[in-house]
Specification:
globular, two-stranded antiparallel sheet
Length: 227
């Protein structure tokens, strides 16, 4: 199976077009956050999301934690998918599924230890996919993504095996380690921000190198699976 790629922290229509041209399956649009790179105003998120061509998905990264607030944020920005970056109350996750039944819903799980595996059953009934990241939501200033750090991929690999939902892997991914991430974790998709940027800007050479690494890794794993 081909590994999907989501390019996050898209800051402009020009960056969105560059990522789509490189082969991105999804674009991440970061709204206000307590920390981390890439937040842009909701009006710009709506503008970019409207311009994203099918079948590329537009992900709104929201730090809202209640179903009503998340639903309002979605209505204001009109993405195809919402990425919930906090470990919200499961009741709110269930309520959001009722409020936005046609919206694709992705729950971020911050992998700090093996306790992340316990959250699979908590959220699976209410979401379409998971995204494993390296944040620290309990920190004095919560980290909800964009850390540039990798976490324990052995936990992520076990999460992928245990989940009945597709799983994206995020956290410290680069063209240099993308292939190893695919070999170790076998995720549905990879998600990255800083790994394809130079001086904070999306870089076409880094993008090309990342997609080339993913393609090679997919070919290698496919060959091994068919052997």
């Amino acid at each position: 199976m081909r590994t999907r790629v989501k390019i996050c922290c898209i800051a402009s229509a020009e960056e969105a077009a560059m990522a789509v041209k490189a082969g991105a399956d999804a674009l991440g649009l970061v709204a206000r956050m307590p920390s981390g790179p890439g937040p842009i105003p909701d009006a710009r998120i709506a503008e970019i999301a409207q311009a994203v061509p099918p079948p590329v998905s537009s992900f709104l990264l929201t730090s809202e934690t209640t179903a009503e607030a998340i639903s309002d944020h979605v209505r204001a920005t009109r993405p195809t998918t919402v990425q919930i970056v906090s470990h919200i109350d499961p009741a709110e996750s269930a309520r959001l599924a009722e409020l936005q039944p046609h919206l694709r819903r992705v729950q971020v799980i911050h992998v700090e230890d093996r306790g992340a595996l316990e959250l699979i059953q908590t959220y699976s009934p209410h979401v379409h996919a998971f995204l494993l990241d390296s944040g620290r939501p309990g920190a004095a200033v919560p980290e909800l993504g964009g850390t540039g750090r990798a976490h324990d991929w052995s936990v992520s690999a076990d999460f992928v095996q245990a989940s009945d939902r597709p799983v994206f892997l995020a956290g410290g991914l680069t063209p240099e380690n993308a292939a190893e991430a695919i070999r170790q974790v076998r995720p549905y998709g990879l998600d990255l921000c800083s790994g394809v940027r130079r001086d904070g800007r999306l870089d076409p050479d880094r993008l090309a190198a990342f997609f080339a690494a993913v393609s090679r890794a997919d070919q290698e794993t496919g060959a091994k699976n068919s052997a």
